[in-house]
Specification:
Layout lengths: L11 E7 L7 H11 L4 E7 L5 H11 L3 E4 L13 E2 L1 H6 L4 E5 L2 E5 L2 H9 L3 H4 L3 E5 L3 H14 L3 E6 L2 H14 L5 E5 L5 H6 L3 E4 L25 E4 L8 H8 L3 E3 L2 H16 L5 H14 L2
Parallel strand pairs: 1-2, 1-3, 4-6, 7-8, 7-10, 8-9, 10-11, 11-12
Antiparallel strand pairs: 3-5, 5-6
Helix pairs in contact: 1-11, 4-6, 4-10, 10-11
Length: 294
Amino acid sequence: MPDVKEISQSTKLVGVIGHPLKHSYSPFMHNLAFTLTDLDYLYLPFDITSNNLKDALKGMVALGITGFNVTIPHKEKVIPFLNEVSEAASIVGAVNTIVNDNGILYGHNTDVHGIYETLKEYKKDLSKSVVSIFGAGGAARSVVFTLLRYFHVKKIHLINRTVERADIIKTYFSEKMLYDRIKTHSLYPPDLIKVLSKSKLIINASSIGMYPKEDDSPTKIAESFNSNQLVFDIVYNPISTKFLRLAAREGATTINGLKMFVEQGARSFELWTGKPMPVEEVYAALKSQLKEEL
């Protein structure tokens, strides 16, 4: 008879809230980590619409749920319902991890940790550099904060389908971090090739190219890339996006989103359990799982 995880009254419950949640690998990642560390926790997905968000957090307290990850579209909307938020989450304006400490809900942004851990080996090269970022949502905010706080970049080009949303982020960081070197662009202007080709780092901080729309890419123009660049896609499913394949063909150094996903998850894991996640084992298992499902 196969081994069945024993669940009891002492099992601690954590999970992810968002809508929709069809393609989340967070349950796989965290439940594997709990098994590897022999911790009595269970991680479940909860598909919660915006209308039910406040009630879901009340239920979290009532049921004694230890923690939640927060994903689209709740990262910004959840903040008013929390008791306290970390400095990074407050400045970014987005929460992706909640800790329930005896009914007091603390909000954190572990995406910042994931982004930093992914890019830190390139820190020297990125200092005083020009960066282009696709996207203007919660992930883009986390990217901008991380680059300003830890990498001291010279200039940021923020590119989005609706330039008005990018303008909001530009104004936001001008006020929050007194940084006035963000320039905004719509996604498809003729001069975007020049902007991208002169950037040391290009980041896709949007969902463009994510499963099941793998044929999409923020840019499909080869001249956007060159061998002096670092190109990072926060999308981890698929591991090799069209965006990264195009950049690699032009000689750019590419980074997929899997390390960021695991590292942000590891920080959430530690906030809930007080224990480190076995990052290397979890990373290898996730990579294998994603390849099997291609």
